[in-house]
Write a structure and sequence with these properties.
15% strand, alpha/beta, 9 strands, six-stranded mixed beta sheet, 259 residues
Length: 259
Amino acid sequence: MSEHISVKQDGAVMRLGFNRPEKRNAITAEMYGALADGMTRAEQDPATRVVLFESTGDIFTAGNDIADFMAGNSSPSDSHDLPPVVRFLHALATAEKPLVAAVQGGAVGVGVTMLFHCDLVFAAENATFHMPFVDLGLVPEAASSLLIPMHIGHQRAAELLISGKKISAARAYELGFVNKCVPGGELASLAEGEATIIAEKAPMAVRLTKKLMKGDRTPVLERMKEEGVHFSSQLQSAEFREAGMAFMQKRKPDFSKLG
């Protein structure tokens, strides 16, 4: 497990937390591996009935650690055939047990796309949601190019995924992918309480109900695979190199000479 992912068993609730506040909880390959391992453990443990995603500090997650990605630290480990990020995304898409998220501060990139796999999402009133994939010369992941248009419609999804607009917790609630917005001081107790309520219900009935609601996961996994091909290609592109350098140099990227 990574020191930057906290894993706590709270009764029947496994709490997986982003724990790298000094780096705005930006996610490295090692952290993805720890998240995937935690979710696998939760699925295999009969005593665990709900997974709760949370964070340390004043931000949920800034998304992928750009420096880590630029360094190419996303290859499969010796004990796994798939890269850590792919294992995590597959675990999200195939999770049989309910997933709950408590979002405070900023959620960026995968910090937003992962929420469309969660069953309940609660947000602090100061939370914001931002998916700047195109701004980084990349494409969406986590099957978000399929799930978000299905959930909120193509035009509103284009605002988030193509225009890359940052939205507030109140707007996310209006769009329907946040269940409730509360003052920051109430977020943890709300999410913990809701996760505990679910954990106390008939476990097989809960899992079967989720399975029926989610339906066939094949299209989601196929879209993840398709996105992964384009994402990997873009990681090698001049667009991503320019965006990555601009990010590191704290300037606006210039795509004017790229076709």
